[in-house]
Write a structure and sequence with these properties.
single chain; 211 residues; 9-stranded mixed beta sheet; 5 helices; 24% helix
Length: 211
Amino acid sequence: MSRTIRLAAYYLERLGLSTYRRQLAFYRRNPGPPPEPFSSPAGFDFRFVRPDELEALQYPGGWLTLAEARQWLERGDSDMLAAIREGIICGYLWVERRSARVDYLKLTVPLPAGQVYISKVLVLPRWRRQGLARNLFLWLSSTEADTVKHCACVAENLPMRRLFLQLDWEVRLLLTFWKVTVLHRYSLEILPGGEEFSLMSRKQISARLFR
C-alpha cells in the first residue's frame, strides 16, 4: 500500500468516513481446572502486577500506553497478568472483570457475575515461541478455575485459535462488524452451525455476546 493511500485511510478514519469490515471469533472456557497443570518456565515468575510496579518492571507498551495501563489498574476493574524474568515484563494479558472492551469492534459489553474477558495478549518478540502465551492462560485457569473465561481473536489468527482448542476452549460465535461512513452494523453467527443474526445494533449485540 502506498504512503498516499495509507494517509488517506488514516484521515478518513479520523473523520469517521472510512468503510471497512472486521471479524472476531469468540471463545469460552467454562469453570474447571486446565487440561494440563501450570508449570512455570525456568527463570520466569507469573503474577498480577500492581500499578506502582509498571515502570520498575519496564512495562513494554503495546496495546496500552504506560499511563493507560496504570489507569486501567487503578480503576480496579481489570488486572494485568505478566510473565516476568529478571525483573522485566516479557509478556502479559489483561483480565477484564466488569466490562469487556472489544476495541477492535468498537464495543464495551457488561460482563455477568463470575465471568471475565481476557484481552490484549502480548509476548515480546524476543520471548516468542517459548510457550509464554500458553502459560499465561494456564496460570489463569489454574488460579481462577471457578470463573467463566471469554477471549476473542481475529478469524485469520490460526496459531491463537489452535491454542484455544489445545487448552479446551470452545468456539462460541463469530461476530462481524461493518462500518460504512457513520453507520455501524453487526452480524452474529452462533457456532458451530447455529443461528445467524444480521444487521444488529450495539445494544442487541451486548445483550447476546456473553449469555
